[in-house]
Amino acid sequence: MRVDTSDNNRFEFGLEKPLMLRGDWAVTADWHVPLYDAKLVNKFLDEAAGYSNLLIAGDFLNGDSLSQYYPKQKSAGIDKEISEARSLMEILAQNFKQIVFLKGNHDYRYVKSAEYRQDFVSAMHEVFLGIDLGSCRLKFTNLDHVYINSNGEKYFVAHPTSYSKNPLVNPNNIATIQKCHVLTAHTHHCAMGWDTSGEYIIGELGGFFNIQQTEYLQDTTTYPNWCNGYWFITRGAAQMVTYGARGKRISGGSK
Questions:
Q1: Pairing with 156, which of 54, 96, 146, 148 sits 20 to 30 Å away (CA)?
Q2: Core vs surface per residue 55-84: b (16+ CB within 10 A) or e
Q3: What is d(CA 140, CA 91) in angstroms, rounded to the nearest whole number?
Q4: Phi/psi at 25 (nearest 5 deg)?
């Protein structure tokens, strides 16, 4: 006997293709609701006025109560997290016409907790079911990355699972593969530079996390200082806004 090569019913074929977003975008990541800095979010919303599109590059949710890691965040259970996430998403929907939400490793804990009976998109639809989006369109993707084409400049934006304590290592490595500008989340750095070829902008997206309220950071740790921030892509150019370790606003951009 031989395997029937014409039988395509063994697995579900047809992998999801990355989204290609176009135009100008406010680009964010690592909100970690409910452990986010509300004052920083308001600063971002003020600066994002005039932008119609918001990209959330993963880890909008924290999912600490669903994690296998210890210690747990005692004051941030799943009910509080979902309630706060829904309220915050409704506020974001009042400020943007389109929101795209990538898969982050913390968000994906909702899929793991359901023993993989549903994909990421289905899990997020359940979390945000019935919220008031007004005229805003909220779209999820099962992938951890998208492309943005802005004024002919191509950006690869991702929430990779890889981690480095050294800023810009991840986006630099990815730029050698993607051959375009690269912005990455996950490391809680906020930094901007050029890849080793000097051709592509690389950056790390920062976040909105509240460092003082994140319980496991209060113990002795070798983690580098977390650095909040956000980005804007406008007519092909990238601008980074960060508040550094001391909370002072710093802005840098490409032309």
A1: 96
A2: bbbbbbbbbbbbeeeeeebeebebeebbeb
A3: 18
A4: -140, 140
Domains identified in the chain, total number? 1
Distances (CA, A) of 118 to 16, 24, 124: 15, 32, 10
Query: What is the tens place of the pLDDT at every residue in 180-195?
Result: 999 999 999 999 999 9
To the question of pTM greater than 0.90 for the whole model, the response is yes
Place of tokens 């006025």: 49
Residue 86 has pLDDT above 90, yes or no: yes
Radius of gyration (C-alpha) of the chain in whole angstroms? 19
Distances, alpha carbon 14 to alpha carbons 11, 72, 104, 223, in Å? 10, 38, 22, 39
- Contact criterion met (CB below 8 Å) for 54 and 48: yes
| Domain hosting residue 130, numbered range | 20-253
Q: Can you tell me the mean pLDDT for 7-21? A: 79
Reply yes or no on whether the pLDDT at 199 is more than 80.
yes
What residues form DSSP beta bridges with 27? 55, 231
CATH number at residue 98: 3.60.21.10
Q: Which amino acid is at 177?
A: I
> CA–CA separation, 104 vs 200, rounded Å?
24
- Residue labelled with tokens 């090569």: 5
Asked if residue 11 belongs to a domain, the reply is no
Tell which residue, 211, 212, 207, 216, has the closest CA to residue 73: 216
Percent of the chain predicted with pLDDT > 70: 95
Residue 117 to residue 96: CA distance in whole angstroms: 32
